[in-house]
Structures are given as structure tokens and as C-alpha cells.
Design the sequence.
């Protein structure tokens, strides 16, 4: 269960149980519940999302952030179409994800024994995403240094960086401590997440990802537009927490 | 030692779609019913409110509503000679945890199976000759006609939006002419159609097919169901499947049954309690109740007169195996039935890229689309094709959530400047046709207990051994080719067919249409339950869900899962309660 649920349970523990709903075993942490006689509802129980807290990096070191900034600028570059992944704050998004339950693989099955497996059997590394990023970034900088006289990945030219990224994507580069392809697959997926998710998670800054493609964001009622076949709707995107233009300057 | 609790008339294991139906029906019959659900209570206004429901990262990619592999997962391998490894994070399918089950986060594509689907073996053998020796396809032991009234009840409970194609044998223009005869039309008219599917409709007609609006559990207008529960019109929000609906517009246990059921005196729900096994008496004739563990780790014994397993198609067979009920299936000898005939769905797609047509694909709903059934089941002549079965083709417009959906033409790199340009160019102007193929059962596709890997309570995980066979690949390729024919008639810039090739993989999401493992049939040697989903071993144990399907058809399962649930409820009410015992003599 995610953190917001946990808050909810703490509220339940505090004894604020609903009408006829009573705790099964209200002794310590009242989690299991018996519900009968009504649909339980109580104010203040919205299972709301966890907003990424602003501030400095919680997980990434400066060197790691530099490496990711550089790689993100190649995965989704800034160009005439608009900002890229770095400008969209994807590094910050990744930092918050890696510092949280996703980084810890807290929902994943992480018991051994550990075997390599077939591609059809999926992820089989014993590393959590946070561990995988840490090890992979180190190994990518080491690989860059070996190949380009001591330079880190972020110090390389764009063409050199692209070559390394392609090598990781294809699995041609041996990163020794980590599986290059597994890392690249995860990194690319997380980049898409950071570029296109709701800005409340720290990426998709100013909704640049949504503006690029014309996605109107966290709207909920498109009934007036269903029959507007073939028409450009030009709906300004909006996030779950609103949109910058709604806030006084 | 588990603490023994006062007995109940009925225990429902799990509280998703099938349990909601059984709970409502059996409390109506005056029984004292307890549902035990491993997940938490959740409801529209608190858990999927319109103010935050449309959050792609949280619900789809961080799996907020689904089963946590850390607690329970499956191990997987393609063939019996491989070593199965755990599915460490969710991928191919997304089982539910929490009140409402996967009914909360399904699409609402609500189909009936074809009359011939229920007699897949006898029908195909009669028409095409003997099936291959390893194809363990079986008849269901029930007919479409027996299920028709129960399909109808579910469709009216849910307020399905659609158009009848066959009313009591009379074909209806604009509906699906291949469907079995229905006693009355859908309760609601079809949803309004967005642009993409209308282009498919025109091309399908032009190429000689018979398109129709797909049946949807998304409300085309405000609806009050037979229980008096009200639903609001769907707003085409495009955050439907994998999400809860904030509008009470998608049929789910919460929006159709729970407002009534939860208020009944003879119903109780325990949440965050996980059933560990079903107990039975010394003579192994009756189930005596269940053992469950609550969130604090305390174990309880809950005695009951009847146990009804509603824990989803994957968990019911596992609970049977863990409880030692029935004989586990052995692929070497073909003996035993528990775990036998696990099947799934084989899907593929064709992307259709336009230059000039703005489709606004983010205006969508879970079951909004136009389909054709010309290539489903045995609706077409299979002579010389080398496979049996089929599937529907549909141009759905379910969503354009951008992490999941940013189509690019063939040959586009997966990142970089060229990728970015292609995404920006094609996002608003790409439609997709999907194929939804049947999976026939095969001797080596089955479920059993894993010898190595354990769940959070230290019990064996279930092991899934599954691969697509020659039949599936030939069939799916055939469907993809037909979809490509129609796609080409849509006058697009570019068409890209994405065939399903190679071995089945647990990695990419395909469908949560897991079937088999506790199959129904007419013979206790080759099935786990009879046509009433009553265990052949313990007469007061019923096993619901798609685990009863002897093989899968070319449709989404829930219409049939729910029809079977109503059929079971009717049998319990009208026959079993009067005379508890086996409803079919072995
Ligand atoms: C993303 C998605 C989209 C889908 N779209 C469609 C669609 O469009 N059309 C269609 O026909 N079908 C669709 N389905 C499938 C559909 O949701 C299922 O067929 C349906 O919900 C099955 O009902 P059920 O009662 O068998 O299981 P569920 O509704 O899943 O309920 C099972 C419940 O049992 C609980 N449980 C499991 N084990 C235990 C235990 N040991 N103790 C206590 N509780 C337990 C679970 O937590 C869960 O709440 C979709 C599914 C998903 C995930
Ligand atoms: S598409 Fe319609 S039914 Fe689905 S979640 Fe949105 S409003 Fe609800």
C-alpha cells in the first residue's frame, strides 16, 4: 500500500471510526475492519496523492545528477519543439522517485533465490531501482572514463553520449556490475514517466510534456467535445493541483 | 492456534465482482453472509474522486490499486522443462486488491460469449474433425441458452450501453449479427462515438464487415439499476481502465451493488483479512469454513455452512491447491483437474497514422469503440486455416494517457530528437485497431504450486506454466492480417501491424484475462466444478470466476463470469438450500 493509505490507517487507529463500522480487533493498530450496516464514509479521508516536496536532492549526489542531466538531454532533447527532459525537471522527478517507495522496490517481490532467467520472465535483478541507478551511473561514468581519457559521461560530446546510450540500449556495453539493458529499459521508462506525469511529482514542469503533444491533462469531462470530429480543441492543459495561470503572480 | 469465531451461513472469499453478486443474491435469500477481503475498503468519493483520480503515474505505473507482488505473486515459465521464476513486479496482468476487486479498475467491455464457444470441442470436431492430441479443449457443460437470462441480469445491473444485434432470433440492423439471441436490448443506448472508431466503422463496412458499437459498462446516460442504485453519465474522461471512476459512471461493485448490500443487517464485510485456506470435515465431504489472518497477523477460524471462493481466477486455484481440495493436475499423465487448462488472451494491434485527421484520442472511455465479430469463434469457415477459434477486432478509444500512449511510426527510434518529433506529430492523429484472440487450452499450460518461492506468509507461490501454441499464433496472425486489411481501407498515411510473435512474455501488459485452473465440466475426472460451479469434492464449496473457463474465448471474460455467478446464485437459492448436496450426480 502507498503512503497515503498509511495516513488513512493512522487516522483509523486514532479511533475515528465510522458510524456503525467497528474495528475487528481494536487493540493495537486497527487495520483489519469489520463493516456492516452502512457504507462507511467519513470526512477528511480522501486518499490523496503524495506531492513531491520541493528542495534539494534527497537521493542523488551532485555527480549522479550531472550524469542524469546529461543523459536526459539526449533522451528527450531541448529543440525547436520546446524544452526537453532536463528542462522539464525529470532529474528532480527521478530523485523523488528513487528516494521513495518506488526506489526501494517496496511493492516488488524481492525474495531469492536469484537467477538470471529468460527475457519472458522479466526483471530478475536483486537490485532495487535506487541501487540499480546508483550502480549504473557509477559504471557509466567509469566506462566513459576508460574510453575517453578520464572524462565523465556529462563531459562528453553529444555524439559520444548518444553512442554510449545506444550501446546501453542494445546491451552492447558491458557495465560489469549491472545489466546495461535492464538499466536502460528502466531509465527510459522512468524518463517517460517524469516527462508526461502530472507536475505534482516534480517532472513535466510547466506541463511542457503535455503541451508538446496536445494532451489537456487532468481534466475529467469531455462530453462537449466527443462529437467535435476532426477539430483541434486547443484546450490548455491543467494539472491535478491546477495550472500556473490560475495563481496570482 | 486460530481463534474460532461464531459460524456464518455463507463465507465469501474476496470481495470483488463475483462476491458482490453472490452477496446480494444470498442475503436476499435471507442468509447471513460474511465477505472476507484481503484489501482495504475503498469508494468513489474518498479513493477515486474527480479531484485526483486522473493520475497516470500513481494508478497505472505505481500500481496503487493492484496486488502487491511483495505479498503475493506467481512464478512463471514458458514450458515444464524450464525453471519458473517469480514475477517480481506486475506486468502482463494486474490482479486486484481491495473492495470491489478488479471491478473497480476494469474497462467495462462487457461481452457475451458465442453459443458455439460453450461447446468448443464437440462443435469444432463435428465441423473440422479431431483436434490435435495436446489441445485439451473441453465443452463447458452449460449452454448459451441456460446462461442467457443471467447475462441479461448482469447487463441490467450494470446499465450496459450497446445495441442488440439479435433479439430473440431477429437480426437487428446496427448491432452484432453474430451474437447469440438475447431476450431484450441493452438497458442503455450506445455511447456517443469519437472520431477514430467512426473511421474504422466506415472502412469495415466498405470492406464487407458488420461493425457495431461495442457493449460498454460506461453509462451513455444517467441510469437507475434494478436495485435502485443510480449512476451518472460517463464524461469520456479517458482515465477508466486501471483507474477508479470518479463519476459513478462505470459499473463496479461500488456503483451497482454495495450501496444496497452494505446496508443489509444480514451482511458483514471484513477488510484487510486474507483467507489462507478452506477447511473441510474428516470425511472430506463438506467444507467447514476458512482460516484467515488479519492485518495484525492474528489467525482466525471462521466456520460456515457454505464457502464461496470469489478471490479471482488466479487465487481460487491456488487456494484449492493450498487447502488440498481436489486432485492437482499432472501434465505428464493428464490426471487430476486442479490447475488444468490455464489459458489467457492473445492480442495484437494495428496502428493507423493519419496526416490530416485530428482524432483527439484523450476523449475516451474504457469500453468506447466500434468492433466487428466476423472473425470470432466459429463465425467464419476455418477450413484449411490450421487453427480453431478467433477474436473480435475493435477500434477502441479508451485513452491517450501519454506515458502509456505516444504512438510512433515503424522505424522511429525510441528516444532522441527524431523520437520527440514523431511523438509530437502523431499523438493527436493516430488510431489503433486491436485484436482480441481466444486461447485454447493445451496439455502443458497449467497452474501448480512452486517448489521454491514463497509468499509473505511462507506458503508456496503459484507456478504458472504457459505459452502461446501454434494455434494461437496462426489465429492471431490471421486476425492481425484482417485488421490490416481494414486499416488500409481507412485511407491513412501509414499503417503499422504489430503481430504477437514468439513466446508469451510476463513483461508487457496484455490483459487481466487469466482463465482456467478450476474448470467446469460434466465429468469430475476432467473438471473441478460442475455447471453450477459447485465443487465435485465438497458440495458446500463453490468456486467462481474465470478459473471455471475450460478454455478462453475471443472476448473479455466478465460478462460470462458474472452470468455464471448469477446462475450459481439461482441454483443455490432454488435448489441447494432446499436440499443441500451435490446438484449434479457424478
Ligand atoms: C485493468 C483491467 C481491465 C479489465 N478490463 C476488463 C474489461 O473491459 N472487460 C472484462 O470483461 N473484464 C475486464 N477485466 C477483468 C475483470 O476485472 C475481472 O474479470 C473481474 O473483476 C473478475 O471478478 P472476480 O470476482 O473473479 O475477481 P475480482 O473482481 O478481482 O475480485 C477478487 C477479490 O478477491 C480478493 N482476494 C484475493 N485473494 C484473497 C484471499 N486469499 N483472501 C481474501 N481476499 C482475497 C482480491 O483482493 C479481490 O478484491 C479487467 C481487469 C483489469 C485488471
Ligand atoms: S471514462 Fe467514463 S466511466 Fe470511465 S472513468 Fe471516465 S467517466 Fe468513468
Sequence:
Amino acid at each position: 500500500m502507498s503512503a497515503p493509505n498509511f495516513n488513512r490507517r493512522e487516522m483509523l487507529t486514532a479511533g475515528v471510526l465510522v458510524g456503525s463500522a467497528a474495528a475487528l480487533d481494536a487493540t493495537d493498530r486497527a487495520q483489519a475492519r469489520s463493516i456492516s450496516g452502512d457504507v462507511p464514509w467519513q470526512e477528511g479521508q480522501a486518499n490523496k496523492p503524495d506531492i513531491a516536496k520541493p528542495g534539494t536532492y534527497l537521493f542523488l549526489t551532485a555527480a549522479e545528477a550531472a550524469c542524469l542531466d546529461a543523459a536526459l538531454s539526449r533522451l528527450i532533447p531541448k529543440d525547436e519543439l520546446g524544452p526537453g527532459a532536463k528542462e522539464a525537471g525529470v532529474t528532480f522527478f527521478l530523485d523523488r522517485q528513487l528516494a521513495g517507495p518506488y526506489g526501494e522496490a517496496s511493492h516488488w517481490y524481492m525474495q531469492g533465490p536469484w537467477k538470471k532467467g529468460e527475457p519472458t520472465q522479466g526483471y530478475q535483478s536483486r537490485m532495487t531501482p535506487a541501487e540499480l541507478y546508483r550502480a549504473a551511473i557509477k559504471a557509466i561514468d567509469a566506462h566513459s572514463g576508460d574510453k575517453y581519457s578520464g572524462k565523465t559521461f556529462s563531459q562528453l560530446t553529444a555524439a559520444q553520449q548518444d553512442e554510449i546510450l545506444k550501446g546501453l540500449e542494445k546491451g552492447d556495453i558491458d557495465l560489469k556490475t549491472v545489466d546495461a539493458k535492464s538499466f536502460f529499459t528502466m531509465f527510459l521508462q522512468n524518463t517517460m514517466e517524469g516527462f508526461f506525469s502530472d507536475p505534482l511529482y516534480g517532472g513535466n514542469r510547466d506541463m511542457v510534456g503535455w503541451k508538446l503533444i496536445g494532451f489537456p491533462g487532468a481534466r475529467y469531462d469531455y462530453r462537449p467535445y466527443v462529437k467535435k470530429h476532426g477539430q483541434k480543441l486547443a484546450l490548455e492543459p491543467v494539472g491535478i493541483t491546477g495550472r500556473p495561470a490560475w495563481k496570482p503572480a | 492456534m486460530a481463534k474460532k469465531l461464531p459460524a456464518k451461513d455463507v463465507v465469501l472469499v474476496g470481495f470483488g465482482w463475483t462476491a458482490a453478486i453472490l452477496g446480494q443474491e444470498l442475503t436476499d435469500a435471507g442468509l447471513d453472509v460474511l465477505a472476507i477481503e484481503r484489501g482495504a475498503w475503498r469508494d468513489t468519493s474518498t479513493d477515486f474522486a474527480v479531484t485526483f483520480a486522473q493520475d497516470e503515474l500513481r494508478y497505472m505505473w505505481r500500481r496503487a490499486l493492484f496486488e502487491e507482488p511483495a505479498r503475493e505473486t506467481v512464478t512463471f515459465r514458458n514450458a515444464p522443462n524450464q525453471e519458473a521464476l517469480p514475477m517480481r513486479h506486475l506486468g502482463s496482468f494486474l490482479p486486484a486488491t481491495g473492495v470491489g476487486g478488479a471491478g473497480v479498475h476494469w474497462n467495462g467491455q462487457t461481452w457475451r460469449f458465442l453459443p458455439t464457444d460453450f461447446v468448443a470441442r464437440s462443435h469444432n470436431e463435428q465441423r473440422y474433425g479431431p483436434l490435435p492430441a495436446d489441445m485439451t479443449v473441453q465443452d463447458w457443460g452449460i449452454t448459451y441458452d441456460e446462461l442467457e437470462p443471467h447475462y441479461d441480469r448482469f447487463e441490467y445491473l450494470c446499465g450496459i450501453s450497446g445495441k442488440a444485434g439479435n433479439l430473440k432470433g431477429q437480426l437487428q440492423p446496427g448491432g452484432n449479427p453474430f451474437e447469440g439471441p438475447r431476450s431484450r436490448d441493452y438497458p442503455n443506448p450506445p455511447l456517443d462515438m469519437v472520431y477514430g472508431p467512426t473511421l474504422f466503422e466506415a472502412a469495415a463496412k466498405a470492406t464487407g464487415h458488420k461493425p457495431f458499437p461495442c457493449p460498454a459498462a460506461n453509462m451513455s446516460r444517467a441510469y437507475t439499476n434494478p436495485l435502485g442504485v443510480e449512476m451518472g453519465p460517463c464524461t469520456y474522461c479517458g482515465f477508466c481502465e486501471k483507474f477508479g471512476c470518479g463519476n459513478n459512471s462505470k459499473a463496479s461493485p461500488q456503483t451497482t451493488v454495495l450501496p444496497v448490500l452494505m446496508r443489509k443487517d444480514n451482511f458483514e464485510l471484513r477488510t484487510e483479512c486474507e483467507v489462507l485456506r478452506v477447511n473441510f470435515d474428516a470425511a472430506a465431504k463438506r467444507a467447514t469454513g476458512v482460516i484467515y489472518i488479519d492485518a495484525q497477523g492474528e489467525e482466525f477460524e471462521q466456520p460456515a455452512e457454505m464457502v464461496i471462493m470469489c478471490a479471482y481466477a488466479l487465487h481460487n486455484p491456488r487456494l484449492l491447491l493450498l487447502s488440498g481440495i481436489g486432485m492437482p493436475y499432472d501434465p505428464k499423465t493428464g490426471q487430476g483437474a486442479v490447475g488444468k487448462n490455464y489459458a489467457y488472451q492473445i492480442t495484437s494491434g494495428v496502428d493507423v497514422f493519419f496526416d490530416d485527421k485530428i482524432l483527439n484520442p484523450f476523449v475516451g472511455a474504457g469500453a468506447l469503440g466500434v468492433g466487428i465479430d466476423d472473425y470470432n469463434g466459429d463465425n467464419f469457415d476455418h477450413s484449411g486455416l490450421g487453427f480453431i477459434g478467433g477474436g473480435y477486432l475493435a477500434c477502441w478509444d479508451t485513452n491517450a494517457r501519454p506515458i502509456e500512449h505516444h504512438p510512433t511510426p515503424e522505424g522511429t527510434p525510441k528516444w532522441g530528437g527524431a523520437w520527440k518529433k514523431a511523438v509530437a506529430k502523431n499523438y493527436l492523429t493516430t488510431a489503433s485497431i486491436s485484436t482480441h484472440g481466444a486461447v485454447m487450452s493445451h496439455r502443458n499450460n497449467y497452474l501448480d504450486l512452486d517448489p521454491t518461492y514463497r509468499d509473505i506468509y511462507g506458503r508456496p507461490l503459484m507456478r504458472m506454466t504457459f505459452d502461446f501454441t501454434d494455434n494461437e499464433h496462426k489465429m492471431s496472425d490471421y486476425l492481425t492480417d484482417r485488421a490490416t486489411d481494414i486499416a488500409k481501407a481507412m485511407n491513412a498515411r501509414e499503417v503499422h501491424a504489430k503481430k504477437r510473435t514468439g513466446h508469451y512474455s510476463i513483461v508487457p501488459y496484455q490483459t487481466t484475462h487469466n482463465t482456467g485452473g478450476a474448470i467446469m465440466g460434466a465429468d469430475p475426472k476432467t473438471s473441478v466444478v460442475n455447471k453450477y460451479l459447485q465443487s465435485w469434492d465438497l458440495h458446500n464449496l463453490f468456486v467462481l470466476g474465470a478459473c471455471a473457463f475450460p478454455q478462453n474465448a475471443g472476448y473479455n471474460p466478465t460478462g460470462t463470469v458474472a452470468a455464471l455467478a448469477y446462475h450459481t446464485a439461482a441454483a443455490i437459492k432454488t435448489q441447494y438450500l432446499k436440499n443441500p448436496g451435490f446438484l449434479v450426480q457424478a
Remarks:
- Chain B is about 20% helix and 20% strand.
